[in-house]
Amino acid sequence: MSDPSHSPTTAIDHDETIELLQELVRIRSPYFEEEEIVEFVHDWLEEAGLEPEYQEVSEPEITGFEGRNVLARLEGSDPEAPTFLLNAHVDTVQLVEGWEEDPLSGRVEDGKLYGQGACDMKGGLAAIMVAVRELADADLRGDVVLSAVVDEEGPYGLGADRMIREGLTDAYDAAIVTEPGPILAQSEIENPALILGARGRFLYDLVVRGHAAHGSQPEKGKNAVVDAGRLAEALAGMDVGTHPQLGDGSVCPLSIEGGSQTLSVPDRCRLLVDRHVVVGEDAESVLADAERVVEGLELDCEVDVGFREAPEEDMRYGPYVTDEDHPLVASLASATESVAGVEPAISYFSSVGDFNYFGHRAELPTVILGPDGENIHGTGEFVYTDDVIEVAEIIVEAARSYLG
């Protein structure tokens, strides 16, 4: 917990920042429907004199998505000094049913701001927006890049992928992603916290192929649904990797789809299975693991083992760990003590997000530092308002140290 008697060292305005967050929360922005919030972020940054630019994001083959990221850059005085990225996504999950109030209310009560996406992650978005505006007047040697990206909650992370695919991240030296960290950390922690890595994720897409027969004579067929059930159970219990920082991997069957005839043995079934992985596991080993499980079951049916279709083969959420001794981590730890009066907790993330693309694919030292809350992706989602301010203050102090 922060030291409540500690005085902040930056000029982040509490009321103005929370008003900005309320405006962001009140804009409906589920993934693939982000245009309004993208324009809002762009216009806010433009009014702040930060000269933002749009980056086109297009994926015509699978999703048909057309959207835009927003990028803004503060140029430092020394071209040889590091450049670091501040990243947040603008989208939310689809609005969930069951809210007892307007899910986009932005209501503030008892230090909590409510609304779909308030914690995941418009609180973090507001924090980097005000932090970059504050840093615009700082004397920095290195550059700061803000990216507000689309489609993090969607199936492929198209916004962050576009930054990597167009080579923007090749010129960066480190990244901060302001996702809510403690709520999905591998250990029970509270803010202020630095999340220094994350598990990766693969999604098995398995097709079980049987043989149809009349349902009154099932022995004459090969039931794909029955074998898919056996396979789901076996995969759920398979051996997984372990890592000293990231913990254990995990396997979770997500769906079984098969059979439609009213009195026929189903001859086809599709099985989707989530597989979270740790450092040391990759696409080849994960695929081989599933194939061994299939072989060991000696099923009647044939099984095609693969991964979910993706726009590009390299669009995978790989695991990563950032070294605790990296200069950015040291700057963030020092800034946390300066702002909050306590040392930050250190932990690792249990799931995946854009930070995997930056930390694994782009090979950037990547730290998750974001405001915490509760009920992300669900009804009653909220973010702690003091966390939003604190994250912005820590980022400003760390940037002055790391780039100053």
Automatic annotation (TrEMBL):
Q: PROSITE patterns of this UniProt entry?
A: ARGE_DAPE_CPG2_2
This protein's cofactor list reads: Zn(2+)
Q: Name one GO molecular function term.
A: hydrolase activity
Q: Which residues form the Peptidase M20 dimerisation domain?
A: 197-295
Q: Give the keywords, sorted.
A: Hydrolase, Metal-binding, Zinc
Per the similarity annotation, which family is this? Belongs to the peptidase M20A family.
Name of the protein:
M20 family metallopeptidase
Which species is the source of this protein? Saliphagus infecundisoli
